[in-house]
Protein: Transglycosylase family protein
Amino acid sequence: MSGRHRKPSTLSDTTGSIALASLKVGIAAATVTAPVALAGTAMAAPSASASPQSNATWDRLAKCESTNNWDADTGNGFKGGLQFTDSTWKAFGGKQYAKHADEASREEQIAVAKKVQAEQGWKAWPTCTKKLGMR
Structure:
């Protein structure tokens, strides 16, 4: 637990030194173990849950993007459950379903999203895919 930037402790009695040493060992073990356990969990999530073919993946993403509001249009330029811009919606064939993403069904939005994901990857939804461990 001692490092270059830590001031060494000095204890005069032996009992206190032993108790402090035990405490330091316990803290060091917890410090080393906890991040490893968390990292292992975070690493497993993307492969298990980020399949663009799974509707559950798109539902998770929509929950983050729009709180599962598939007809969302809050006036910020992003529409639908997966928050498409009109230009992205048009470029990936969304207009065959509806003029704007918020006017299309969940299934139609997912169909367009799969095309976007195939070309741009998960970074097309930068904040939520990172938050969900999908990239």
